[in-house]
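chain below, 375 aa
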Amino acid sequence: MTLPSPFFELLHTDPCGARRGRFHTLHGTVETPIFMPVGTAATVKTLSSADLNAVGAQIILGNTYHLFLRPGHAVIAQLGGLHRFMSWSGPILTDSGGYQVFSLGATRRIREEGVTFRSHLDGSALFLSPEIAIQIQEALGSDIMMQLDECPPYPADRSYLVQSLRLSLRWARRSLDARNPAGGQALFGIVQGGMEADLRRESAEGLVEMGFDGYALGGLSVGEPKERMEEVLSYAPGLLPNHQPRYLMGVGKPADLVEAVGAGLDMFDCVLPTRNARNGQLLTQYGPMNIKQARFRDDPQPIDAACGCETCRHYSRAYLHHLFRNKEITGLRLMSLHNLHYYLQLMADMRAAIQQDRFAGFRRDFSSRQSISHD
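prediction:
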């Protein structure tokens, strides 16, 4: 098997710079810009693969670190790969585990060879290198693999950022060398460099010279002020090739996605829609709604009258309030369905706006509506 050619097609660019594209994998074609629901441990929490299809998911994300720990990539490979294991027939992107290792903080030790860390499950000592991360992802059989990188914290000294991005570049080279080019899997490099424009440029130029199938912006949404992230997004997409997909990792809120699409980015993931749903926050065209509030106890309306998801078609705010207050699992599923439908419909609406050269107006209308909050 080989990677489909072309892997990515840039179909249209809006005057503001937003891009409409399409990439091809062995498990299907994905229309961009696209949001990828996060299925960290081979599941998008509370939802089945049938649910994901129903809300319009085109591609989902799994995580190398968590699947490496449990059940183990060898077990998943023996059972036919991640697609068969979780009964998902569409494309899958796997994160390399770099961000999860970053999150372990003091329990990790980073050196040239790789990262030594302690399992968050039982405290056992483990080792992850660029080569092992590729080996795991190839065993999982994901359609898009990510290089192992080091995600620096915010804030960080410039000297640390320089050392970190250059280590990530060396790991990128090793990731490419370890990859089986006949496996049919794409491999993305990850741009680091913190909030420093010249370091972001150095990282991007080094990765582009190596020649990846796509490129991601990492090291954002790690605690930096919103203005700093917006500053990076104002120039960083332009450092990446026009003819390849651009992925913004771990971002974010609906307003962040609209701004990032306007900046010329194509792919996104975040736990926010499902995590917030499980905590009672629902997303609507007029901003977030906290279903825990007592005023929804006898409200017969759907979450959002303009929404066509299963939850809004069949269930009231009062019912969801009741389910949440009584800790009923059904409520978590119905609210997760709604929030993911909201995200994926938002992406579909942006694709249509880009295709019709009206993204600037779409962005203005979106911002105006979202200023009306239910909270």
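Residues 8-269 form a domain with the TIM Barrel fold (CATH 3.20.20.105). The radius of gyration is 20 Å.
thats it, cya
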